[in-house]
Every structure is written in C-alpha cells, then in structure tokens.
Amino acid sequence: MIHKRYTEKSYDFFSRMLLICTALLTAFSIISSIIVGHLSSQYEQTLYLKSYDLAAVNLLEAFGNRFADFNILAGKFLSDGQCDPRLCDLLETPSYEEIPAETRNYCTRLLAGICREDRYLQGFLILSSKREKLYYYTESRSYLFHTDPPEFQTPVPFSGSLLDLETVRLLVSACDSDSTGHNDFYGMAATLYRSPAAPLGYLIPLYSTSEYTDILSNYNLEEQSAFLITDDEGKLFFHSNPSLTPDLSSCYTGTFHNSKYGFNVTYYTKKLGLPLSPVTCMIILFAVLVTLFSFSLYYITYYLSRRNVYRILDGMKRFSLNDLTYRIEKPSGHNEFTQIIDSFNIMCEELQRNVERSYVYELQQKKSELYALQTSINPHFLYNTLEIIRAQILNLKQSDASQMILLLSKIYRNQINSSMFITLGQEVELCENLMILYQYRFQNFEYEFDMDGQVSRFALPKNTLQPLIENYFVHGIVTERQDNLFFLSIKSSHCQERLYIHLTLGNNGHPISEERIQMLEEKLQSGPYTKEDTVGFALTNVNSRMRIVFQEDYHMQISSGKNGMQFQIELRFPAMTAEQLKEPFS
Questions:
Q1: CB of 99 within 8 A of CB of 89?
Q2: For residue 127, is pLDDT > 50?
Q3: Burial level of 258, CB count in 10 A (0-12/13-18/19+)?
C-alpha cells in the first residue's frame, strides 16, 4: 500500500502550479504582444496610408481647382457680357461648309491659344444644340472637325456640368476614330449664348487625367492600389488603375469629399501590400522569445525540483520498506530541498536508533515468552508417567518399563533442544511417542494421524501439539468407554496465491457446551497468563505461541458436534520452513 501511494502521481501539485504560472505568464506576454502589436499595426497602417491620404487630398485640391478655374476659362469666351460673336456664328451656321474661313480660323486660334496656357487642357468639344452639330479641336490636329453628335445626356444650361470619362470618350470617338480605346479625358460644359434666354450650345474643354497621374507619381504607392474621382451620383472622372477590381474586404480604403463642388476622391490598396514594420517584427520576436524563455525556465525549474522531489520520495519509500540505513544524498547548494533532506536524514537516524532499541527489546521479549511457553509442560504428566513406570517394574514388566523410559527420554530430549522450530513430520513423530506413553496408562482408546506427505517439510513451534493431546486425556477421554478415538489431520490449501496448513484435532469423548466454548474463546483473546486459574491453559498456550510466530496470518477455531466428534480444534497458518520462521528471531 505504501509503495502504491508513492508511485501514484499525486505529488505533482508543485509542478502543476509551476506550469500554470508559466502558462499565465506566457498567455499574458502573448496577449500583451497581440494588443501592442495591434496598436503598432494600426499606427504603422496610419503611417503607411498617410501617403495615400496626402495623395488623395492633393487630388481633391487639384480637381477642386479645376472647378474654380473653369469660371476664368469660361470668361475668355465672353465679350461685352455675352459669348464671343464668332463662336456664336459657328454654332448658328447651318452647315460647316457655310462657315466663313475667317470664322473657322479665328475660332481655331482662340482655342489653340487657350490650350497652350494649360498643358493638361488637350482640346475642346463645341456642341450646337440648335443645329445638332459637334465640333472637335485638339492641338495635334489644329483644325475643327465636325460630325453629328451621338446620343448622350445633354448638359444642363448654365450649370457648369461635369462630363465623366464615359461620356467624353463617346463624344470624342464620334469625332475621331483614332481615339478608340482612350478614356483619359473628362470635361466641363460651359453654356454659349447671345442671350441667356436662348442658349446656342456648349463649349466643353477636354482635360487630361495625366494631371492626376503626375500627382500620384510623386508618392511611393503600391502597384495594387487605385485612386478614383467620382461625383455624388457615382460618375467616374479619373481611375488610376482601371485593371484593378477592388474587393473592400481585402483592401484598405479611404474617401475624401468636396461638399462645395460635390465630388469624392477614393483610394483602394490591397492589405497584402502592407509590409510588416520593424516595430511589429520586434514585438512578434519579443513575444516568441518570452514564450521560449518562460517554457525553458519552467523546464529547468521543473527538472531540478522534480529530481529533488523524486529523490526525497524514493528515500521515503525505501525507508518505509524497512531500509533503515538508507540516507538521501545531499544535493549541492543550499535551498529548501537541502533543508528538507537534512531534516529527513536526521529524522531517519533518530528513528533508526529508536527502532533498533524497540526491535531488540521486542525480539528478546518474544524469545523469552516463546521459550517460557514451550517449556511449560504439565508436571502431572511426568508424575503419572513415572508412577506407571514404577508399577511396571513392580510387576516385573521390565520391557514395558524400558520402552516407556525410552519414549519419555525422547520427549524430554526434544524439550531441551535449543531449536525453537521443528518440522511437522518431527512434531507428529513426537506426538506419536506421547500417544504410546498414554496407551500404557489408558488401554481404551485409539488414535489416527492423517498427514499429507508434501506438508511434512513445513515447520511450526515445537511442542505445539503436545499440550492439546494432554488436554484430551485430562478433559476429553471417557474412561468407561472402550471406543475412545483421537484423530489428527494435517492438510494444505491455497488461498490468495499462498499455501496454508490446516491442522485439525478432534475426539469423541466428553461433549463441550456452548458456554464452555464461549469461555475458551474469551480466554484465547486474553492470553495464557492473564488469570490465576488454569482454565484453557493448554489452548491459550498454543494459541499464544502460534500468534507470536505467525502474527495475523494465524487462526484457531473451537467447535463441538461436528462430523461425529464431540470436541474439535482447527488451526490454520502459512506454510513456512524452519529457516523462514527463524529469520525474524535471529
């Protein structure tokens, strides 16, 4: 039971608490690193997106300036509070061929001069709403091209309407087939009129989106990013990366609004494009190092403490298994384990001295008690035997007297033998000598001895059965009967993988009452010397000797009226050799 208690891992409380503390420290460092890393990532994200925000603000400002400058541009086509007359003539002439060359040349020079003042102004569209004509001018062609306008949403007069990329591409494509695929122009519509009550058409300057591309080129931006300029209705005027299809769930995005002119600048950039900053990398590295350090410290502490704990537990186990000379080896250093080991070794030394003193005293007591019990042969048996021998001699039966003296000498030679234990075979032989002596005194009884041959080598304290046999001739035999019977049976059996001896003595003599059995059982519990009377002395003598030798593995039972017998005694004890029995007393 002790060994089982020490081998169970019920002593890992210290290790579990150390592991919990290490896990809490690791969790705290990881959670702290995650929080700090998240804040650092947010800060790095802010720094990373700062250039995008600045670029978007510059786009917002540049596009707003186009609105502010448009009024100045429109004023260049006014004369005395109304539109330039020659532009009005151009819009009112039924056909292009009817326009005088002087008017065409004037309009071309006017438009060319305005384009030269702004490098991002690439041309003009002039739309005649009255004659449904569309004129197109670019610096590369230096002349007016005319065609029928395609279907599109006509600008609102006097509103300074914006024309998105799609509308401008549609109008330019109608005038110039070589411009197919170009979508980098947007426009603003200025109303042309002689009288505000009758608008003649619209002058649409064509602005290149390269202005905003040039602005973006001043910033270090990722390729997987895009900037868009749209109005409140979602019309697109600029897209820096048309091939990019933004996914809002995987992109950083930002929007800036111009409430005065009603347009927005929006940017998108892939989240994968955000590199890990040195600060974030240092935080991740710090969390990993703290985790490794915590578990390394736990392992070292666990290993050292567990080694000392096992050393102490092993010492306690060996000491509990009666290894009283064992001492725990003292580890190097001076700590709590060293103090525990020192105290344990001191305790073991004191306990060993006390145990040795108590053990030697108890052993001497047991030897003395066992010797006293073994030598307590009933003197009446000796007196009666000598009286019978004297009678045999008087009756000139020298042979019988000689045989009785020989048997008596064998019995007393065994009595003075120094050995405390003999085999069952030797004990049964002495009992038979005793029975033969009693046959000279009582001629009206028979005896039966039944012993398994394989149990004769096992031992028991000497003179164990003689008191029980003498007890029969004192209390059990019926002198008036001729069929008195005494039997002795010695068998063996296995119980819980151990061999036991079952020794049974019985007779058919005087019956014994239940009250007498109860009194004898009480006497067996109290011992042979607790009372001055001699009631049950033989039984308690045998019981005490067997109890001293076999401890709790020995059992005696008294019964009556079993198997035709009037009195029966059963003894059960472990099958052990004489050497095994001597070992505790050596």
A1: yes
A2: yes
A3: middle
